[in-house]
Amino acid sequence: MLARVMSRHDPDLSRIFHALSDPTRRAMLERLGQGPVPVSELARPTGMALPTILRHLAVLEEAALIRSEKTGRIRLCAARPETLAATADWLAGQRAIWEGRLDRLDAYVMTLMKDRNHDD
Question: Crossing angle, helix 81-119 and helix 11-20, to 10 degrees?
Fold first, then answer.
């Protein structure tokens, strides 16, 4: 039980969802889904200043959604799909819990409706 409660407050999940909450960071992740690119290419479509882009990338890197490495003067960024896969697993678990609850509610409502029809 305690493990279930703790997983709701998993700091990694908090970082991931915080990182995904921003449309600029989501767009960067979408681009990185096509393959690694230099920071300058990620910055180009945003029109943002480089320091702002670097802050966005730091958030993504802290959440383990991307990794970066510097080669000479170029910083190359790449997606880490395994982090999104773990997040998808957590979401699937939550969905299963809620679908189960809704199924039980539906069965209960159907029972009430049948009982009501039998009383009429």
Answer: 90
Q: What is the dihedral of CA 11, 16, 19, 20, to 10 degrees?
A: -140
Q: Which residue has the higher pLDDT, 62 or 100?
A: 62
Does 120 score more than 50 pLDDT?
Answer: yes
- 1 inside domain: no
Tokens standing for 55? 């802050």
Does any domain span residue 99? yes
Looking at residue 47, which CATH number applies to its domain?
Answer: 1.10.10.10
* Both structure tokens of 59: 């958030």
Name the strands in the sheet holding 66-71, side by side, starting at the edge strand that comes first in the sequence: 37-38, 74-79, 66-71
Structural domain containing residue 13: 7-119
What CA–CA distance (Å, rounded) separates 66 from 59?
9
pTM of the model: 0.72
Number of domains present in the structure of the chain: 1
